[in-house]
Amino acid sequence: MGERLHTTRIDLAEEIRIAVIQLLNRSLATALDLKTQVKQAHWNVKGPQFVALHELFDDMAGELDGFVDELAERVTALGGTALGTARIAAATSILPEYPTDIAEGREHVQALADRYAPFAQHVRAAINETDELGDADTADLYTEISRAVDKRLWFLEAHLQAER
Question: How far is CA 84 from CA 8, 19, 29, 89, in A?
Fold first, then answer.
């Protein structure tokens, strides 16, 4: 991490807070990246489902924006520094770059499903990791995010399943 922790009265040992902060910052970067990729789809979707997908993607980006804020605030509550610039997110995110050569609605739905799935996997692993570290509050935050991400993945996959 390389940064000093700020003083807090939260009763988690420093080494636990450091490990959780590092995980939270990885999640923060990925959530920021995912949000911008969803906005890329929102701005560029075309086709007969334009209105429905345009609105869905905007709702998804707004939801991710809330998660970004919650993740960053948990980092700072634990005495860390939230690392949430665009450059940090791009360098740290677990997601592949979003394709800029697609336009049709189904292509965007596929691309987003391909990004939501690894984010969902990351969040589920973070639930277990923070629980094992003894930070039930952060595990609970990840559980909240996990439910919402799985629901959005279900919405995306439902579009793909209907067209088989």
Answer: 21, 17, 6, 6
- DSSP class of residue 164 equals -
And the tokens for 63?
Answer: 């939801």
The pLDDT tens digits for 4-47 are 899 999 999 999 999 999 999 999 999 999 999 999 999 999 99
Domain boundaries, the chain: 14-162
Task: Tell me how far apart the alpha carbons of residues 125 and 5 are, in angstroms, rounded to a whole number.
Answer: 24
Chain centre distance of CA 72: 12
pLDDT (tens digit, 9 = 90+) per residue, 44-75?
999 999 999 999 999 999 999 999 999 999 99
Structure tokens at 43: 């701005």
């800029």: which residue's tokens?
A: 100
Yes or no: say if 53 and 138 are a contact pair by the CB < 8 Å rule. no
Residue 134 zone, left/alpha/beta (φ > 0; ψ -120 to 50; rest): left
Is 14-162 a CATH 3.40.50.720 domain?
no
Which of left, alpha, beta for 133 (phi over 0: left; psi -120 to 50: alpha)? Answer: alpha
CA distance 83 to 118: 21
